[in-house]
Amino acid sequence: MDSRADERREPRRDWRDTVRDAADLALLGILTVLAAAPVLTAGAAIGTASAAVHDWLATGGWPTARRTLSRFGRGLLPGLPVALIGLAAVGLLAADLAALATGRVPGGAVALGITTAVAAALLGYAAAIVVEVGRTGGTGWRSAAVRAARACLDHPAHWAALAGTTVVATLLGVLVTPVAVPILAGYLLAAVHAVARRRPVTRVELS
Fold first, then answer.
1. Who contacts 160 (Cβ-Cβ below 8 Å, separation ≥6)?
2. N or C: where does the chain have the smaller number of CB atoms within 10 Å of the terminal CB?
């Protein structure tokens, strides 16, 4: 009986599995950045990649190329306003931080610290939205934003963890060579999904 039970157990993972997972995530990051390069396709690219990571964590396998391309196609139009809003938000925050850091805008260290904290919180919220979109197949940004807001308010510790994860990844993106940034994107997606999986899924129904 013990031998049959041992046979039913999942095979133990070794270093080769870790290397394969790392290579898969690196490839995912590269493909996501390439798909998002036209900017207007960024929403669809990120949503599709998030859905792929969700499938990988939930089932242990990656979606097929056909399913991934189908998700990307369905996400192009809904992801267009997401890309524009995200680009505008990043631009405004970067401009504010640069102006405060260089002293062009009054406020000093206090204003810089507050703005940095707000930026980190928004990054954490954005990461929560990306995770929620991944859970619904890469689409449904509006409902994902509602679920993410509820999740952040109900679980502030996880919100802080998502914010910290994205801030660390952003700092690494600034420090590493530009060639490595796409690879980092895949690891960031896996990290925020892993953090989000440590809390219950929040379901919100829209009337």
1. 124
2. C
Q: Which of 26, 32, 20 is closest to 61 using CA atoms? A: 20
What pLDDT, in 10s, does the model give residues 125-181? 999 999 999 999 998 999 999 999 999 999 999 999 999 999 999 899 888 888 889
- The structure tokens listed for 31 are 């493909």
Report the alpha-carbon angle 141-160-87, nearest 5. 40
Residue 190: partners with Cβ closer than 8 Å, 6 or more residues away: 25, 53, 56, 57
The helix (run of H) or strand (run of E) holding residue 124 is helix 108-135
Q: Calculate the CA 118 to chain-centre distance.
A: 18
What is the C-alpha to C-alpha distance for residues 149 and 131, in angstroms, rounded to an integer? 12
pLDDT of 187 reads: 95
pTM for the structure as a whole: 0.84
- Sequence-distant (6+) residues with CB within 8 A of 105 are 96, 99, 111
Q: At what angle do helices 108-135 and 65-102 cross, to 10 degrees?
A: 170
End-to-end CA distance of the chain: 53
d(CA 81, CA 117): 25
